[in-house]
């Protein structure tokens, strides 16, 4: 029994039941005044608890395991039951003992001492209560007896006492099974007293008996807690999205089943009534958690409408309450404006590498260009676009998982702008589809939404045959770049470009950049550039640049050397084409200089909490010149997500003019509808007051400000479960063994997964890497949120080498739907391959002569034992 209690009759610790019944054995052979325990009793109320102890209680001797906790209320003192003889005078009596009966089989079947008594917070109850378990015969009830200590009883208080029972299958591990039903037999003994109305008063306790109800198991309950329309006032005939939030307001994790929605339904929906749209399954929701489900509608006629959402519209899920299953939102469908805006996406293409798109390499970056035109008759406000490097279906407003989200500037009627974005290409060869949508959050009222999207099909393949691979080596600077360098410093720069690939490179260019954020775009102009000749495999070209001017702004700067800056050669690796050299420029002594800083930043809405993808915010901030000289006119820029120190010349999503600002003066800047990052996760909005470092050094500590925020959206979450191998992988398996595999891929996320691949490795240790394929592959998905795809693979060949192996099933080979090595997207099955194993026991020669005679004839006898489970030839 737990160390917090005393044992009866010298019973060993291992004998105490793991039962979770709190029973106080009736006072042994003691006469008492009989009374009836009311049901339910406010003093002795057994109840289920949803809490599972995730850590082993330190005072439980053995075994170490996980425990379910069952609790009851216990009051040390209360008025007597007025119907009982012993309590006719309604006197206050103190609790002496409580006992609850346990069915005999739970004792006979070996409940052990891994049963403990604790308070509600899990601490040991030994300081407040004594308890012991009495073992009974095979037919008689056993019991657990609990007695408050004197100090507890005198305190006249109330507390909650819990029994901790191992959460293991096959044991009497619920109150119901231990008590043998839905109630528990309870005996309560109070302190002794003398009823005044008896002829011969005696000092005897009051013994109350009766049954205490076991409260029902924890219940499920779901509520529709929010509805959000985008746009909030849809235009008639145009699409809009509805995000519906379903919250688990119950006590246990559960799946609410389906979710039905109506675009316009003012009256309450009935169970089973057909909805305009239904999501077949919402997926498992933890207690207290919420999920968001999106629907797309086409707005109806102009007028006031009532959007209705109904969780579990078929009423198939038993819940504590059905009154919170429905929620409505009033909204207005508006007419299309007579003067219109119409954003059109066109000319989507991947550029930046030599040759057609088929020469793009897996895992590299590429430049995507497209044109946005305002074909309407009114100016369009600033908004955002979203790009997906691989998306099978046409993009819609606020669709999940874009590769990049960035700004589209305001456009006059009839105006157009060309936008270039750098995207990371998928990591595996194959056919892909680039998808674009302009006005990603659908915040702009347009005459037509149908032309906001564009698609572009492309191939990723590794070209057959050898490839060049240019790298920069042997970089020398004179003077060296360590320490502080004066303003106006010039540099002698020498470096070598070597072709370490297996094919000749094409003629191209090298370019030198001062202060450029990240990798440059193909063909970008720098501080200096020059010709780079065709280089055979193993050949190199040395470049010498005398008197190269460094940046003239004091502070940290970065010099970048880029080989093949115009991307003329298709290479095996582009990452080694760039070398970055940091250096510092000193400030002139005793000079009047400006000093720009950013203060008083206000964001509307606030950046606190979780923000949706495509969120627009209004920003206001002050740029203060705290220096001793007026600043030169320049630019400010705002990045939607930038870690680290901004680099001179790098521009963000929105830019604007700044200054001149006199010494001590302030310029207030207001930016409306700034688009936040379109990728889920923690982000950092960064405002830079001096883009080109005209007045301050690169990364001057007060010339920029950082605002953290978080974005979220609906995401898939693929996991592998219910794996069955035939024959089983247990024991030793022979070389060449084939197995049949069946497994489920479950999408426990909140959005449908994109189509992808699964793969199976016959032996793989560690976390699988995106794009790595195993012995057998197959197609997977799309899988709706909460849905399951069952996969069967026949005659899968196990590893052909003897030893311990690990079969690994990966549900998302190319990480199309999950991060590299997402913890639940793969499953590992260990197995062991064995083979024939011969042991040479003994060798003898007949006749036994020493030394052996030349030309003699002898018999050599050998004893060989096959110690394996497989047959074979010696």
UniProtKB/TrEMBL annotation:
InterPro entries: CARDB, Ig-like_fold. Residues 220-328, 356-455 form the CARDB domain. It holds the Pfam family CARDB. Residues 1-29 form the signal peptide. The keyword Signal applies. Keywords: Signal. This is CARDB domain-containing protein. It comes from Monoraphidium neglectum.
């Amino acid at each position: 029994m737990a160390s917090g209690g005393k044992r009866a009759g010298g019973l060993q610790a291992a004998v105490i039941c793991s039962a979770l019944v709190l029973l106080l054995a009736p006072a042994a052979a003691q006469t008492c005044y009989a009374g009836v325990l009311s049901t339910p009793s406010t003093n002795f109320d057994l109840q289920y608890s949803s809490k599972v102890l995730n850590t082993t209680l330190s005072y439980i001797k053995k075994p170490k395991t996980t425990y379910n906790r069952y609790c009851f209320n216990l009051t040390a003192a209360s008025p007597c039951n007025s119907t009982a003889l012993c309590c006719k005078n309604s006197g206050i009596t103190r609790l002496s003992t409580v006992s609850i009966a346990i069915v005999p089989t739970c004792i006979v079947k070996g409940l052990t001492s891994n049963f403990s008594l604790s308070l509600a917070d899990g601490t040991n109850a030994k300081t407040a209560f004594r308890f012991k378990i009495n073992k009974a015969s095979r037919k008689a009830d056993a019991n657990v007896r609990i007695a408050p200590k004197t100090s507890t009883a005198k305190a006249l208080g109330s507390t909650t006492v819990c029994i901790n029972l191992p959460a293991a299958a096959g044991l009497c591990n619920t109150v119901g099974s231990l008590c043998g039903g839905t109630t528990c037999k309870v005996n309560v003994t109070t302190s002794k007293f003398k009823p005044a109305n008896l002829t011969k008063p005696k000092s005897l306790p009051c013994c109350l008996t009766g049954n205490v109800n076991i409260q029902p198991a924890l219940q499920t309950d779901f509520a529709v807690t929010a509805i959000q329309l985008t746009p909030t006032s849809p235009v008639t005939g145009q699409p809009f999205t509805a995000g519906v939030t379903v919250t688990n307001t119950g006590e246990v994790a559960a799946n609410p089943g389906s979710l039905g929605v109506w675009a316009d339904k003012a009256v309450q929906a009935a169970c089973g009534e057909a909805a305009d749209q239904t999501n077949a399954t919402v997926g498992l929701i933890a207690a207290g958690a919420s999920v968001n489900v999106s629907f797309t509608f086409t707005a109806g006629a102009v007028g006031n409408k009532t959007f209705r959402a109904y969780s579990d519209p078929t009423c198939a899920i038993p819940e504590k309450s059905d009154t919170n299953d429905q929620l409505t939102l009033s909204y207005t469908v508006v007419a299309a404006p007579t003067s219109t805006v119409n954003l059109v996406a066109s000319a989507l293409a991947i550029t930046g590498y030599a040759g057609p798109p088929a020469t793009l390499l897996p895992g590299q970056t590429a430049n995507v260009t497209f044109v946005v035109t305002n074909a309407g008759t009114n100016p369009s406000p600033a908004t955002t676009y979203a790009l997906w490097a691989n998306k099978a279906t046409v993009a819609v407003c606020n669709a999940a998982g874009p590769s990049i989200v960035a700004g589209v500037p305001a456009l006059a009627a009839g105006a157009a702008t060309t936008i270039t974005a750098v995207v990371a290409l998928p990591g595996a060869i194959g056919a892909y589809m680039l998808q674009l949508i302009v006005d990603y959050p659908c915040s702009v009222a347009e005459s037509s939404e149908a032309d906001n999207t564009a698609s572009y099909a492309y191939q990723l393949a590794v070209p057959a045959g050898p490839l060049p691979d240019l790298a920069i080596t042997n970089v020398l600077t004179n003077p060296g770049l360590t320490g502080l360098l004066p303003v106006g410093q010039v540099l002698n720069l020498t470096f070598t470009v070597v072709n370490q690939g297996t094919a000749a490179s094409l003629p191209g260019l090298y370019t030198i950049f001062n202060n450029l954020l990240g990798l440059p775009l193909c063909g970008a102009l720098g501080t200096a550039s020059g010709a780079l000749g065709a280089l055979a495999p193993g050949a190199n070209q040395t470049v010498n640049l005398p008197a190269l001017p460094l940046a003239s702004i004091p502070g940290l700067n970065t010099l970048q050397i880029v080989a093949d800056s115009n991307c003329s050669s298709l290479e095996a690796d582009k990452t080694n084409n760039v070398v970055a050299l940091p250096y510092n420029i000193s400030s002139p002594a005793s000079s009047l200089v400006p000093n720009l800083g950013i203060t008083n930043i206000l964001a509307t809405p606030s950046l606190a909490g979780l923000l949706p993808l495509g969120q627009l915010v209004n920003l206001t901030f002050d740029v203060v010149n705290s220096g001793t000289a007026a600043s030169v006119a320049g630019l400010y820029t705002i990045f939607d997500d930038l870690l680290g120190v901004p680099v001179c010349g790098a521009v963000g999503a929105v830019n604007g003019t700044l200054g001149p600002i006199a010494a001590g003066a302030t310029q207030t800047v207001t930016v409306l509808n700034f688009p936040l990052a379109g990728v889920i996760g923690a982000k950092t909005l960064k405002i830079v007051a001096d883009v080109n470092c005209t007045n301050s050094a690169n990364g001057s500590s007060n010339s920029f400000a950082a605002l953290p925020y978080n974005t979220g959206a609906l995401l898939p979450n693929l996991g592998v479960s219910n794996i069955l191998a035939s024959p089983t992988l247990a024991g030793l398996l022979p070389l060449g063994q084939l197995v049949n595999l069946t497994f489920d891929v479950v999408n426990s996320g909140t959005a449908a997964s994109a189509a992808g691949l699964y793969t199976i490795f016959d032996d793989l240790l560690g976390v699988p890497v995106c794009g790595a394929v195993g012995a057998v592959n197959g197609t997977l998905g799309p899988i709706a949120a909460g849905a399951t795809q069952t996969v069967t693979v026949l005659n899968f060949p196990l590893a052909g080498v003897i030893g311990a192996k690990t079969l690994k099933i990966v549900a998302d080979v190319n990480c199309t739907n999950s991060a590299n090595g997402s913890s639940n997207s793969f499953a590992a099955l260990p197995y062991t391959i064995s083979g024939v194993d011969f042991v040479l026991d003994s060798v003898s020669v007949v006749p036994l002569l020493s030394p052996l005679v030349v030309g003699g004839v002898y018999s050599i006898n050998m004893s060989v034992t096959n110690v394996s489970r497989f047959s074979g030839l010696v």
